[in-house]
Design brief:
Layout: H1 2-16, H2 20-38, H3 56-62, E1 69-73, E2 81-87, E3 90-96, H4 122-134, H5 137-152, H6 168-172, H7 178-200, H8 205-225, H9 229-239, H10 242-245, H11 248-257, H12 259-277, H13 293-298, H14 303-307, H15 317-329, H16 335-350, H17 352-366, H18 372-377, H19 380-392, H20 397-420
Antiparallel strand pairs: 1-2, 2-3
Length: 421
């Protein structure tokens, strides 16, 4: 009996010892998990639901229960992904298209040469500024808003760009919507820089003051009449650039000859932008496109980027204008405001029906005044090709933006020096 007992006690100990191959497998798994956890959250590979180049049959074996899902590489479409999920006892597979919402390659407009164009094409600039000056601010705002409504609220109409049958606003909040978030950051930067370029390329302070007034009026119409907070933010970011703010003579003329515009900018528009960025501005009932820029900037941001302030000078320009003001002065380093912007995505989707209802009213009213060339003038495809030329449009976005801002700084400094003389 004792022998039997000893034998029975020793058996579990013997079977509990893993084999060398099992030990190696466990070590390899541990290293793989440590590597996965060390990845930047902006890396798709850092998420447990991403399985890489996983065969279709293996994906169906993994999603066993109702609601299980995973994302894998698409074998038939390079650079795209597939969402595999189990719903009602069946496994469904959806291709997630990574293509940008902007079609730079196929975009053609009469505003630019048909083959290739240089950065800040002279004819394109003159035509754009002429349309800006001669067109009423309400009509300009309507054309901007029409493009933004299509970008955020309309569902894709063709299978090639079918994002699980969701609108841009819905895609904005999804894990695989990172490219779309980059698209709307690009559109914001382009509108901001177009505002600055049109003002800084004027020959006189009087002309600069005239365009300052026009952009202020467009910002008012965009927000108040059309409820487009996204475009309002982009235009205001252009007017608030330090290269524009330092044009003392132009602002002085604005206050003298365009007093109402100057007052509205200082007393209403600038404070409104500030409270929007601090997430303390209640949403107006006529909103068509909400203030999504801060969500797009923050949702893919690593936690260490919030904690570590040592690399603050290396961050994009939009960080310094939209995030740094409240992040640097808040007692909690802006964590509460950060959370409010991220939590705002719930409101985006909850109010999607309201946005579409408001947009339908605006679009129906604006149809008789639709101008194709004016629409082209506010498309991001035109902005990118105009600002950086046909070849420069393919450069890295952050490099393009920073280089152009340096050029604008030189232009502004030149005007300030001439004014001092």
């Amino acid at each position: 009996m004792e022998s039997y007992g000893r034998s029975n006690a020793s058996t579990p100990l013997a079977t509990a010892q893993p084999s060398p191959s099992e030990q190696q497998e466990a070590i390899a798994l541990k290293r793989a998990l440590e590597w996965e956890l060390s990845l930047d959250t902006r890396e798709l590979r850092s998420y447990a639901w991403y399985h890489g180049a996983l065969p279709r049959q293996r994906a169906e074996d993994i999603v066993e229960r109702e609601g299980d899902f995973l994302v894998r590489d698409c074998a038939s479409q390079r650079d795209n992904y597939v969402l595999s999920c189990r719903s009602k006892a069946a496994v469904l597979h959806f291709v997630l298209n990574k293509a940008s919402k902007f079609d730079f390659d196929n975009f053609v407009t009469l505003l630019l040469p048909s083959v290739e164009n240089n950065p800040l094409d002279g004819d394109g600039l003159n035509t754009f500024k002429m349309m800006l000056i001669e067109t009423g601010p309400k009509l300009l705002a309507e054309h901007i808003t029409r493009i933004d409504i299509a970008l955020f609220l309309e569902e894709p109409s063709n299978e090639e760009n079918y994002y699980l049958s969701c609108s841009g606003l819905e895609l904005l909040t999804l894990p695989h919507g990172k490219l779309f978030r980059e698209d709307i950051i690009e559109r914001t930067q382009c509108i901001k820089l177009m505002v600055a370029v049109t003002i800084l390329t004027c020959q006189t302070d009087l002309d600069r003051a005239q365009l300052l007034s026009k952009w202020i009026q467009v910002a008012v119409e965009t927000k108040t009449a059309l409820g487009n907070l996204f475009a309002f933010c982009a235009i205001m970011l252009g007017l608030c650039m330090h290269q524009i703010q330092k044009l003392d003579q132009a602002w002085h003329i604005l206050r003298q000859q365009y007093t109402e515009s100057a007052f509205i900018f200082e007393a209403k528009l600038r404070p409104t932008l500030s409270i929007m960025n601090e997430a303390s501005n209640p949403q107006a009932p006529n909103t068509t496109v909400p203030h999504v820029l801060l969500y797009a900037l923050l949702v893919d941001r690593p936690v260490m980027d919030i904690i570590n302030h040592s690399n603050i000078d290396d961050r994009p320009a939009l960080y310094h204008t939209c995030i740094a003001p409240w992040e640097s002065k808040a007692d909690d380093f802006g964590m509460a405001i950060n959370f409010q912007h991220l939590d705002a995505s719930r409101g985006f989707l909850k109010n999607l029906g309201l946005y579409r209802k408001n947009a339908k009213i605006i679009l129906e009213d604006a149809i008789p005044r639709l101008d194709e060339l004016l629409s082209d003038a506010f498309r991001t495809e035109f902005h990118v090709k105009f600002l950086w030329g046909s070849s420069g449009a393919n450069a890295k976005a952050e490099d393009r933006h920073s280089k152009l801002e340096k050029v604008l700084t030189l232009m502004a400094d030149k005007f300030c020096t001439l004014a001092e003389k």
